[in-house]
Design brief:
The complex is a heterodimer of chains A (151) and B (145).
Chain A: E1 8-12, H1 18-29, H2 34-46, E2 52-59, E3 62-72, E4 81-89, H3 98-112, E5 118-120, H4 127-135
Parallel strand pairs in A: 4-5
Antiparallel strand pairs in A: 1-2, 2-3, 3-4
Helix pairs in contact in A: 1-2
Chain B: H1 5-19, H2 27-33, H3 38-50, E1 54-57, E2 63-66, H4 75-82, H5 84-96, H6 100-122, H7 125-139
Antiparallel strand pairs in B: 1-2
Classes of the chains: A alpha+beta (151), B mainly alpha (145).
The complex binds coenzyme A (COA).
Residues 28, 86-89, 94-100, 128-129, 131-132, 135 of chain A line the site of coenzyme A.
Chain lengths: 151, 145
């Protein structure tokens, strides 16, 4: 079942959404990070300066999910594009199209900001998130992450 | 990355059938379209049938229809039926490596295998069908199936 546009509103985050966001994140990750989300809100939500976007999905007065992204110039030497930094949907509200609506809304913000590409970075064996992004038509970017233990 | 012929045929057959879930696909048609012998195709289709991805349709002309869940069946579910290599490779290579040189090579090849597996596991049949549609839209063509 897809989330109907009448039931669901995707809008910029407000300060009063933070408790719900912290709760959704804690439910997913098992760690409550109030300070971290205050900082994210300050950086991506409160600061009205484009091109940072922090959007929430509101349904019947409650918050069912959120997405954060930003347009960045010359990241890794590539032309400006929109980066999705995180998306989360409340487990009980999943598979009804909310993730898709959030990503679509963020992509519209990116397009309005003048870019024509969206990217994200994720752990490659996180099959849930990976399958979601794949379902949205996202393919591998010409970027690879490398790492090394510091000896 | 190169997949075995059987694997490629299996993917094509599943995608052709999943494109119209209720529709019966003719094995003769698939054999001709993808230039594969009917005998080889029959073997591949039997395997997909045993895995519950296709079911044979009775009646005149006989054929197959998709019987999986396109939103949940991944490329890995199909590929894994034919390419034990990919599923097992990393572990086996590391076990077989007895020298430092072989271990280093096994580590690099293991990295490639892990990436390939993550790609195949994250792409569902439904996602592939959308990709085909998108490619056709871009190319201004009608659907291939
Ligand atoms: C990934 C996530 C955002 C998807 O949200 P959602 O609202 O369920 O997504 P949608 O309903 O729009 O699903 C769109 C498509 O994604 C794919 N998908 C989503 N969940 C899936 C699942 N559990 N299994 C298989 N495919 C899935 C499907 O193709 C689905 O389309 P379908 O419903 O037609 O099958 C959500 O599962 C989530 O929040 N996961 C945890 C994210 C996380 O860990 N965040 C913290 C770090 S960023």
């Amino acid at each position: 079942m897809q989330a109907q546009s009448a039931d669901l509103l995707v809008r910029p985050v407000r300060a009063r959404d933070l408790d719900s966001i912290i709760a959704i994140d804690a439910q997913i990750t098992g760690i409550e990070k109030a300070e971290y989300w205050q900082e994210r809100f300050h950086r991506y939500g409160e600061r009205k300066r484009q091109p940072c976007f922090f959007l929430v999905a509101e349904c019947d007065g409650g918050i069912d999910g959120f997405i954060i992204g930003e347009v960045r110039d010359w990241e890794f030497g590539t032309p400006a594009c929109g980066w999705v930094f995180g998306i989360s949907v409340r487990p009980e509200a999943r598979l009804s199209g909310i993730g898709t609506r959030l990503l679509d809304a963020l992509c519209n913000c990116f397009k309005n900001a003048g870019v024509s590409k969206v990217r994200t970075l994720l752990v490659f064996d996180d099959m849930l998130v990976m399958t979601f992004y794949r379902s949205q038509g996202m393919m591998a970017a010409p970027i690879i992450t490398l790492e090394r233990n510091l000896e | 990355m190169k997949l075995q012929k059987s694997t490629v045929i299996a993917l094509c057959s599943v995608l052709e059938a999943a494109h119209e879930p209720g529709r019966q696909i003719s094995s003769a048609g698939i054999a001709e379209k993808y230039g594969v012998s009917p005998h080889h195709l029959a073997k591949v289709l039997r395997r997909l049938g045993r895995a519950g991805l296709l079911e044979s349709a009775r009646g005149v002309g006989g054929g197959y229809r998709f019987s999986g869940n396109a939103k949940r069946v991944t490329l890995m579910d199909v590929i894994g039926l034919f390419e034990e290599m990919i599923v097992e490779a990393a572990g086996q290579r590391e076990k077989a490596a007895s020298t430092d040189v072989e271990r280093a090579i096994a580590q690099v090849l293991g990295e490639i295998d892990e990436t390939a597996k993550a790609v195949f596991k994250s792409i569902t049949i439904a996602t592939m069908l959308r990709l085909i549609e998108r490619q056709n839209r871009v190319a201004g063509q009608s659907p291939p199936v």
